[in-house]
Amino acid sequence: MTRTSVTQHSLSPEQPLQFIRTHQDAFDVEPIFPLKLFEEFVVGVKSNLTIEASCKVEVDKLLASRFLLFFQNPVQQWQECLSKTINFFNQVENQVGVNLNYDLLRNFIGNDFDYSKMTELTAGIDLRTNICESSLKMHIGINDYQKEIKKVLAADKGNLADIDPFLLQKAFLIGFDYYLDGRTEVEIYAALNEAELKSYYIQNYLRNRFSSAVLQPLLVSDIFYIGLSKVNPHPILYYRLKHKKDLQNYFKLNDMAYKVNNFYQQQFTRQYMWVGVEQKELEKPRIDNIRLYYHKYFAI
Fold first, then answer.
1. CA 167 → CA 40, 49, 102, 153, 197, distances in Å?
2. Model's pTM, two decimal places?
3. Which InterPro entries does the record match to this protein (predicted)?
4. 232 forms bridges with which residues in the sheet?
């Protein structure tokens, strides 16, 4: 995900933790395991980073113990960042007493992965009171490396014939969800940037594939992701709104989502935000199922 430029500030270990804890306090989030390990991991990164705090709204249910760390490092350090992420996952794994299955990640990275193609790495948590439903999350962004995407999809027993070749060509991000009961899920993201969204060819493609309700928020978005996963029968559509204030102008939020957004409109975060939603929700009089993502950048 492309980042906007921001003023550099001196980073203290407590600043990212304060952002995480403010989110917890706002939505009455209990300190579910392994939140403390994640906080220790964040403090130990000791480099520029972005923290994402997000909420998943399911009608009147709010899932708010969701955080991601975005490494903001030079390309030559990606391998080191990935190693730190795996070490964090191993710490969690050792305490839970479950074996996380890294086969798909190993298949993706292999023995000859070209780290110069890597553009992004995240590490995070999505926690539930039922620990088996909690997961550790990782996203790897790549540039012009579709053969690796195809390789992991084949290993995941995904049917490449079912994926639109255009979307596969635009797949620049892959997400791994490691559940604490040993399950692994993979999602690939086809990405379209602002210039592409203005292209007649791509606009025509989107009009033929999606309803007008999907296209409207693109007017205020500079990145659009189409998330494809075996566990989601319909794609998850991710919009990066250039200004978080535009959320309520283009998305008909229910009361729970409105509460989340109302809080974050008052917080000092990056001016953009991400929204994740299915097409069927956008077509309803009111959206009951939605993901809302807010970000804050911390620099040394």
1. 37, 29, 25, 13, 14
2. 0.92
3. Preny_LynF_TruF
4. 229
Stretch 178-191: mean pLDDT, rounded? 93
Residue 89, number of CB atoms within 10 A of its CB: 22
So what's the pLDDT on residue 8? Answer: 43
Which residue is associated with the tokens 């804890």? 21
- CA-CA distance, 94 to 180, in Å (whole number)? 11
Tens digit of pLDDT for each residue in 67-120? 999 998 765 589 999 999 999 999 999 988 888 999 999 888 877 888 888 999
Cα–Cα–Cα angle for 286, 227, 67, rounded to 5 degrees = 80
Half-sphere exposure of 120 (CA within 13 A, CB side): 19
Q: How many CA atoms lie within 13 A of 257 on its CB side?
A: 22
CA distance 119 to 293: 20
- The span from the CA of 39 to the CA of 265, in Å, is 24
- Render pLDDT for 237-247 as a digit per residue (tens, 0 to 9): 999 999 999 99
For residues 242 and 275, is the Cβ–Cβ distance under 8 A?
no
For the chain, the average pLDDT equals 90
CB 291 within 8 A of CB 55: yes
Cα separation, 140 vs 300, whole angstroms: 23
Q: Which helix (H) or strand (E) holds 19?
A: helix 14-26
Cis bond leading into 13, ω under 30°? Answer: no
Give the Cβ contact number of residue 239 at 10 Å.
24
Q: At what angle do helices 14-26 and 35-45 cross, to 10 degrees?
A: 150
Residue 50 pairs in a beta bridge with 70, 297
